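W.,

You were right to be curious about this one. When I first looked at the sequence I had no strong expectations either way, so I just let the prediction run and decided to look at it fresh. Below is the sequence, 65 residues in total, followed by the output.
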Amino acid sequence: MRRETSTGLQAQRDVALPGSGQKPLTGLFVSVAESGERKSSVDRVALAAVYRTEERWRGEKRRVG
C-alpha cells in the first residue's frame, strides 16, 4: 500500500530542500518477482482507485480544454 499512498500524495505535497527551494514529492517503486507471478494482476487490483481517479481527471481535462 505504500506505492498507492505515495501516488496519492505526490500531487498534494512538495519537499523543501535546503538551498534548492521546493521540489515535488516523488516515490519510485519497482515490483520484483519471477515471470508468471501475477505482478500486473496485483497492480491492477491495488491501484484500481488510482486508475479510476486518473480517468476522471482526464475526462475533466477534455471537457475544460
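Here's what jumped out at me. The two ends are 33 Å apart (CA to CA). And, maybe more interesting for your project: The longest strand covers residues 14-17.

Coffee later to discuss?

I.
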